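thought: fold this chain, then report.
action: predict
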Amino acid sequence: MNIVQVHGRVPYPWRMPRDTLTREQIVKAAVELLDAEGLEGLNMRALGRRLGSAATAVYWHVGSKENLIALAGDQAWNEITLPDPTTTDWRTAVTRMANDLYAMVIRHPWVVQALGSYVVYGPGKARHDDHSLAIYEAAGFTGERADLAMTTVFTFVLGNAIGPAAAAALARKLGRGGGNATELLRDRLAGAREVAARFPRLRARLDTAAAGYGAAPEHSFEFGLQAVLDGLEAQLVALARPPVSRGASAGPSRCRPGP
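observation:
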């Protein structure tokens, strides 16, 4: 007589969901949970409830919470489109990828948190980085200069995304327990406004959109990105100039003529 006959049911209920779940379903649900609750809200039990399954079934497919975050983070990188460097000029291609990266991080602010706490590097991130290098190489950057150009734009985008990501994390924190996050944030910022009002330039900006928590002036991302690209383009122009001959005169001679 087997166990099912003795107890009248399947002895290990997690085995059934385990067989019907897929890793893709789990990662998709994990991204949705992370978007809603952030890194601090992700646990296997909560994810299992979203999937109508037991936490043990989720573990069986992904191994650990750390591995699940890595899988979810890498999935987010697949949302970035990759312009063809052979048919798109490099500034347009870089601008498109930077805008896509910025939009992705705003949609998934936990990605910024994850990069500082977990190793999030898989095929999606590698695909993004390899394509970025191809664009900078097509522009004329070679070797280490291509890596420097890519890193400069990448860190600029992430730096601009920190503000919205921090605001989203704070809103989640204040809203836990059923509180009104908007009202609580306004109350917390009242003291900050009093401090800022002591300084003339900050006081003049207190009633602008840029005064919000983690906020920046409108179009600041676009402005900054174009400024960065202007600098990179200036480097390309400098690299294209022919080298000055060592024997060439640096200017009119100041020597007195001989007798």
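thought: worth noting. The chain has two domains: 12-63, 82-238.
final: tokens above.
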